[in-house]
């Protein structure tokens, strides 16, 4: 099939009904961000029959023939190396779809498309960076990229992404770093030119089950700050009629959550200011969390603990 120009693509899309464009947009989304498309994906999303789903995929191929190829081994369509999205995908909508589902299920049955943690995104990663990462998470693949960190500057890395994380001010990816032989957090805005490594096998030590900090769930008891002038307001704000807010968080994300929520984690509730509406009743609950030092006022209980400055988030 000949390749259509951008103008030809738009003209062909303009001839379609809104319903048809929605179905093609879903196909585009599945290919771009999950790296695979099955006829059942269209059937399940829109409730159409198999024949109608086949026609939708054929119509997508007519408009963007260079975007997908059939994987005869897995019997699914894959995006090609020359894939260019047929639609403009809003960053917030994409992240919402990946974290909450893209219309599949109702109510409590909604499920994320890839492993994900989220409050609210305040910055937006580039879609050309996000897409290879989410494809790698979905398919269990490694990624090669260029990464700029505060400590090491600009270096080439190989990582094995396991989950998306939203800490309120940004999205990052939890991944195994083959350079440092351990799990780390990688910020999307610091990534360049990610490429999925199709032929690079994933070792047992690189799988999500081996990430101790990710799999450890910490239970926190938050109470109105003892120095707050109106503790009853705090109880209303956080829906805590008994005066205690019970929170469960992954050890890998605990420090971020407590810092972004401005929770006093000092053992003697010594931080001052109305921004500290809550106090962590038992700071020892953070013991062993890799980023506990990010929590406001946290003090390592070990008597010989080194004083480590907070690194840039």
TrEMBL record:
InterPro entries: CapW-like, CapW_CTD, CBASS_pafABC_assoc_protein, WHD_CapW, WYL_dom. It holds the Pfam family WHD_BrxR. Residues 129-194 form the WYL domain. Coiled coil: none annotated. Residues 20-88 form the DNA-binding transcriptional repressor CapW winged helix-turn-helix domain. Residues 217-283 form the DNA-binding transcriptional repressor CapW C-terminal dimerisation domain. This is Transcriptional regulator. It comes from Herminiimonas arsenicoxydans.
């Amino acid at each position: 099939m000949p390749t259509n120009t951008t103008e030809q693509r738009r003209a062909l899309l303009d001839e379609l009904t809104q319903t048809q464009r929605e179905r093609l947009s879903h196909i585009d989304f599945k290919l771009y961000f999950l790296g695979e498309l099955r006829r059942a994906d269209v059937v399940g999303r829109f409730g159409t029959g198999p024949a109608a789903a086949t026609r939708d995929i054929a119509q997508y191929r007519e408009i963007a023939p260079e975007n997908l190829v059939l994987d005869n081994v897995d019997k699914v369509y894959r995006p090609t190396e020359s894939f260019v999205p047929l639609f403009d995908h809003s960053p917030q909508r994409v992240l919402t779809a990946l974290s909450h589902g893209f219309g599949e299920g109702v109510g409590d049955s909604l499920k994320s498309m890839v492993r994900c943690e989220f409050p609210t995104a305040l910055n937006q990663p580039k879609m050309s960076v996000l897409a290879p990462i989410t494809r790698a998470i979905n398919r269990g693949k490694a990624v090669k990229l260029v990464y700029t960190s505060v400590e090491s500057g600009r270096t080439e890395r190989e990582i094995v992404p396991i989950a998306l994380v939203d800490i309120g001010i940004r999205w990052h990816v939890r991944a195994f770093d083959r350079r440092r032989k351990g799990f780390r957090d990688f910020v999307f805005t610091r990534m360049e030119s990610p490429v999925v490594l199709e032929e690079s096998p994933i070792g047992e030590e690189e799988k999500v089950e081996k990430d101790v900090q990710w799999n450890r769930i910490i239970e926190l008891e938050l109470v109105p700050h003892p120095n707050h002038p109106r503790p009853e307001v705090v109880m209303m704000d956080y829906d805590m009629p008994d005066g205690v807010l019970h929170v469960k968080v992954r050890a890998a994300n605990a420090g971020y959550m407590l810092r972004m929520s401005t929770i006093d984690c000092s053992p003697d509730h010594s931080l001052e200011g109305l921004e500290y509406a809550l106090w962590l009743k038992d700071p020892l609950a953070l013991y062993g969390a890799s980023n506990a030092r990010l929590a406001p006022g946290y003090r390592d209980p070990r008597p010989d603990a080194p004083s480590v400055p907070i690194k840039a988030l």
